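stage 2 :: seqdesign
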Protein backbone atom coordinates (compact mmCIF):
# COMPACT_ATOMS: atom_id res chain seq x y z
CA UNK A 1 0.00 0.00 0.00
CA UNK A 2 2.79 2.40 0.96
CA UNK A 3 4.64 1.64 -2.28
CA UNK A 4 1.50 2.27 -4.32
CA UNK A 5 0.95 5.64 -2.62
CA UNK A 6 4.56 6.62 -3.30
CA UNK A 7 4.21 5.71 -6.99
CA UNK A 8 0.98 7.72 -7.18
CA UNK A 9 2.67 10.75 -5.56
CA UNK A 10 5.60 10.53 -7.97
CA UNK A 11 3.19 10.25 -10.90
CA UNK A 12 1.25 13.32 -9.80
CA UNK A 13 4.48 15.22 -9.27
CA UNK A 14 5.62 14.32 -12.77
CA UNK A 15 2.36 15.68 -14.20
CA UNK A 16 2.75 18.89 -12.21
CA UNK A 17 6.38 19.29 -13.28
CA UNK A 18 5.42 19.02 -16.95
CA UNK A 19 3.33 22.16 -16.58
CA UNK A 20 6.06 24.23 -14.95
CA UNK A 21 7.79 26.91 -17.01
CA UNK A 22 11.44 26.13 -17.77
CA UNK A 23 14.11 27.61 -15.54
CA UNK A 24 16.20 28.73 -18.53
CA UNK A 25 19.41 27.17 -19.84
CA UNK A 26 22.59 28.83 -21.04
CA UNK A 27 25.63 26.79 -22.01
CA UNK A 28 24.82 24.02 -19.53
CA UNK A 29 23.96 26.50 -16.75
CA UNK A 30 20.43 26.74 -15.36
CA UNK A 31 18.80 29.92 -14.11
CA UNK A 32 17.95 29.12 -10.48
CA UNK A 33 15.94 31.10 -7.95
CA UNK A 34 16.66 30.23 -4.33
CA UNK A 35 13.13 31.08 -3.17
CA UNK A 36 11.68 28.71 -5.78
CA UNK A 37 14.16 25.85 -6.28
CA UNK A 38 13.21 24.64 -9.76
CA UNK A 39 15.90 22.67 -11.55
CA UNK A 40 16.90 19.60 -13.51
CA UNK A 41 19.30 17.30 -11.64
CA UNK A 42 21.43 14.79 -13.55
CA UNK A 43 24.42 12.60 -12.83
CA UNK A 44 27.72 13.36 -14.55
CA UNK A 45 26.91 10.90 -17.35
CA UNK A 46 23.62 12.67 -18.10
CA UNK A 47 21.33 10.15 -16.39
CA UNK A 48 18.34 11.91 -14.74
CA UNK A 49 18.35 11.78 -10.94
CA UNK A 50 15.38 10.07 -9.24
CA UNK A 51 14.49 10.53 -5.59
CA UNK A 52 13.61 13.50 -3.39
CA UNK A 53 14.99 16.84 -2.24
CA UNK A 54 14.49 18.12 1.31
CA UNK A 55 15.26 21.53 2.85
CA UNK A 56 14.23 22.02 6.51
CA UNK A 57 10.55 20.95 6.63
CA UNK A 58 9.97 21.20 2.86
CA UNK A 59 10.32 18.15 0.61
CA UNK A 60 9.66 17.44 -3.08
CA UNK A 61 10.04 14.40 -5.35
CA UNK A 62 12.66 14.46 -8.11
CA UNK A 63 11.07 12.82 -11.16
CA UNK A 64 13.03 12.37 -14.37
CA UNK A 65 15.63 14.67 -12.89
CA UNK A 66 13.16 17.54 -12.45
CA UNK A 67 12.25 19.06 -9.09
CA UNK A 68 10.34 22.06 -7.80
CA UNK A 69 10.71 22.96 -4.12
CA UNK A 70 9.24 26.33 -3.00
CA UNK A 71 11.08 27.77 0.01
CA UNK A 72 9.25 31.08 0.48
CA UNK A 73 7.33 29.73 3.47
CA UNK A 74 10.45 28.23 5.09
CA UNK A 75 11.74 30.91 7.49
CA UNK A 76 14.38 29.97 10.09
CA UNK A 77 13.46 30.95 13.63
CA UNK A 78 16.85 32.52 14.35
CA UNK A 79 20.20 33.10 12.62
CA UNK A 80 23.15 30.79 13.05
CA UNK A 81 25.47 31.66 15.96
CA UNK A 82 28.45 31.56 13.57
CA UNK A 83 28.22 33.52 10.34
CA UNK A 84 30.59 31.14 8.48
CA UNK A 85 31.23 33.37 5.46
CA UNK A 86 30.62 36.75 7.15
CA UNK A 87 27.51 37.45 5.07
CA UNK A 88 25.73 39.55 7.68
CA UNK A 89 21.98 40.14 7.68
CA UNK A 90 21.35 37.49 10.36
CA UNK A 91 22.50 34.67 8.08
CA UNK A 92 21.14 31.12 8.43
CA UNK A 93 23.01 28.43 6.48
CA UNK A 94 21.71 25.21 4.90
CA UNK A 95 24.42 22.85 3.66
CA UNK A 96 22.96 19.89 1.75
CA UNK A 97 26.17 17.87 1.46
CA UNK A 98 26.10 14.38 3.03
CA UNK A 99 29.01 15.36 5.31
CA UNK A 100 27.38 18.53 6.67
CA UNK A 101 28.05 18.81 10.44
CA UNK A 102 24.40 19.72 11.14
CA UNK A 103 22.29 18.49 8.19
CA UNK A 104 19.20 20.58 7.47
CA UNK A 105 18.05 18.65 4.44
CA UNK A 106 19.51 16.65 1.61
CA UNK A 107 19.18 14.99 -1.76
CA UNK A 108 18.08 11.35 -1.47
CA UNK A 109 18.07 8.60 -4.07
CA UNK A 110 15.02 6.38 -4.61
CA UNK A 111 16.65 3.69 -2.44
CA UNK A 112 16.92 6.12 0.50
CA UNK A 113 20.68 6.69 0.32
CA UNK A 114 21.92 10.27 0.32
CA UNK A 115 23.48 11.84 -2.75
CA UNK A 116 25.44 15.06 -3.10
CA UNK A 117 23.83 17.99 -4.91
CA UNK A 118 26.57 19.90 -6.72
CA UNK A 119 26.04 23.51 -7.79
CA UNK A 120 28.65 25.59 -9.60
CA UNK A 121 27.93 29.25 -10.48
CA UNK A 122 28.60 30.67 -13.92
CA UNK A 123 30.10 33.79 -12.33
CA UNK A 124 33.31 32.07 -11.26
CA UNK A 125 36.28 31.89 -13.64
CA UNK A 126 37.54 28.53 -12.31
CA UNK A 127 37.09 25.31 -14.26
CA UNK A 128 37.23 22.82 -11.38
CA UNK A 129 34.94 23.77 -8.48
CA UNK A 130 35.06 22.46 -4.92
CA UNK A 131 31.26 22.38 -4.68
CA UNK A 132 31.03 24.38 -1.42
CA UNK A 133 27.67 26.06 -1.85
CA UNK A 134 24.96 26.94 0.65
CA UNK A 135 21.35 27.99 0.76
CA UNK A 136 21.47 31.10 2.96
CA UNK A 137 18.54 32.95 4.50
CA UNK A 138 19.07 36.61 5.44
CA UNK A 139 16.61 39.02 7.02
CA UNK A 140 17.89 42.10 5.19
CA UNK A 141 19.68 42.81 1.90
CA UNK A 142 23.47 42.30 1.85
CA UNK A 143 25.77 43.86 -0.74
CA UNK A 144 29.44 43.05 -0.33
CA UNK A 145 32.20 43.29 -2.92
CA UNK A 146 35.97 43.26 -3.21
CA UNK A 147 38.70 41.78 -1.08
CA UNK A 148 37.57 41.44 2.55
CA UNK A 149 38.63 39.66 5.71
CA UNK A 150 36.42 37.14 7.52
CA UNK A 151 37.51 35.65 10.88
CA UNK A 152 36.19 32.22 9.86
CA UNK A 153 38.29 32.08 6.67
CA UNK A 154 42.07 31.52 6.67
CA UNK A 155 42.75 34.53 4.42
CA UNK A 156 40.94 37.50 2.88
CA UNK A 157 38.42 36.45 0.21
CA UNK A 158 37.13 38.13 -2.94
CA UNK A 159 33.42 38.88 -2.32
CA UNK A 160 30.74 39.31 -4.98
CA UNK A 161 27.45 39.28 -3.05
CA UNK A 162 24.04 40.74 -3.78
CA UNK A 163 21.78 38.96 -1.30
CA UNK A 164 18.08 39.77 -1.11
CA UNK A 165 15.94 39.26 2.00
CA UNK A 166 14.93 35.59 2.11
CA UNK A 167 16.77 32.68 0.50
CA UNK A 168 19.89 33.04 -1.64
CA UNK A 169 22.39 30.66 -3.25
CA UNK A 170 25.93 31.30 -1.98
CA UNK A 171 29.13 29.64 -3.17
CA UNK A 172 32.53 29.51 -1.47
CA UNK A 173 35.57 28.66 -3.58
CA UNK A 174 38.60 28.08 -1.30
CA UNK A 175 41.92 29.67 -2.09
CA UNK A 176 44.32 27.74 -4.30
CA UNK A 177 47.75 29.29 -3.51
CA UNK A 178 49.49 30.59 -6.61
CA UNK A 179 46.39 30.05 -8.77
CA UNK A 180 43.45 32.00 -7.35
CA UNK A 181 42.21 33.70 -4.22
CA UNK A 182 39.21 32.48 -2.20
CA UNK A 183 35.91 33.67 -3.65
CA UNK A 184 32.48 34.16 -2.02
CA UNK A 185 29.70 34.62 -4.55
CA UNK A 186 25.96 34.87 -3.89
CA UNK A 187 22.64 35.82 -5.50
CA UNK A 188 18.97 35.03 -5.08
CA UNK A 189 18.80 34.24 -8.79
CA UNK A 190 21.69 33.34 -11.12
CA UNK A 191 22.96 30.72 -13.55
CA UNK A 192 24.38 27.53 -12.01
CA UNK A 193 25.53 24.14 -13.26
CA UNK A 194 23.58 21.41 -11.48
CA UNK A 195 24.43 17.73 -11.08
CA UNK A 196 24.34 14.92 -8.53
CA UNK A 197 26.98 12.55 -7.26
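stage 2 :: out
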Amino acid sequence: MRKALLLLALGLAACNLQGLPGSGEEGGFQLLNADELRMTIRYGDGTPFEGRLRVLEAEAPVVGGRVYLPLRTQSPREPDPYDLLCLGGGAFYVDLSPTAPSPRGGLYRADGSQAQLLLYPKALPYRVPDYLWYLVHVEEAVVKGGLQECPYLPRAAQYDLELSPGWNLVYYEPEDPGIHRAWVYGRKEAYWKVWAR
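stage 3 :: structure notes
- The helical segments are 2-18.
- The chain is about 10% helix and 40% strand.
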